[in-house]
Amino acid sequence: MKKLAIFDLDGTLLNTIKDLGESVNYALDRNGFHTHSVASYPYFVGNGVRRLIERSLPEDARKKASVVEAMLKDFKQYYNEHNTDRTVPYEGIRETLEQLSSNGVQLAVASNKYQEATVKIINHYFPDIPWVAVQGQQDGIPVKPDPSIVFMILAQAHISKQETIYIGDSGIDMETARRACIDSVGVTWGFRPVKELKEYHANVIINKPQDIVPIVENGIPL
């Protein structure tokens, strides 16, 4: 049985894409750039807010540090006020977290979303879950797929790699788990296609949150 389950946030615990997309569009419009359809944003997210902003900009503009910084400022100002407007937990996630916790499994979040927003959103949507750690992007710490924040969580939880499982919706998540030498679970309800999860060698791929519980209890199916 696994003793620690580490979850990605965007696309795994919560569908955040509408609030993210609308916040970037606000910044784009404010800085004189064309906006994108919300349907475009699942392909922009995953590597932290700076890369999200860069991907949303025209190629020539993303190379200008002053433009990116102005966009980041406007994005964060708007997103900090609107990051729970249209974000919702995926169906079955809350019940899955509650069941894992009641079974004695420690729970943690490892996200490339900046720390302030990560903590706010987790506290808003899952106030009763006893998280052992909530780690977002922080200055001086590399973003995923670098495994640094995973190692920080392991140290906080006092759990070994062999007793840990990592759950996420993207190739970035699967690569993070691989680099950390931790078993990975790819989920199909998030932002990225199953093809990407396979290409990045997810140990197992699941279609609904309830499937996490037996994997935590019994290990990765052979």
3D structure, described in words:
There is one protein chain. The two termini are 15 Å apart. The chain has nine helices and eight strands. It has 222 residues and is α/β, with parallel strands linked by helices. It has a six-stranded parallel β-sheet with strand order 5-4-1-6-7-8, sandwiched between helices. β4, α5 (115-125) and β5 (133-137) form a beta-alpha-beta unit. The mean pLDDT is 96. The chain has two domains: 4-15 and 88-218, Rossmann fold; 17-82, Orthogonal Bundle (DNA polymerase, domain 1).
Distance between the termini: 15 Å
H and E order: EEHHHEHEHEHEHEHEH
Number of domains: 2
How many helices? 9
- Write the CATH fold name of the largest domain: Rossmann fold
What is the CATH-assigned architecture of the largest domain? 3-Layer(aba) Sandwich
Low-confidence stretches: none
Structural class designation: alpha/beta
Task: Report the CATH C-level class of the largest domain.
Answer: Alpha Beta
Secondary structure: number of strands: 8
Average predicted local confidence, pLDDT:
96
Radius of gyration: 17 Å
Shape: globular
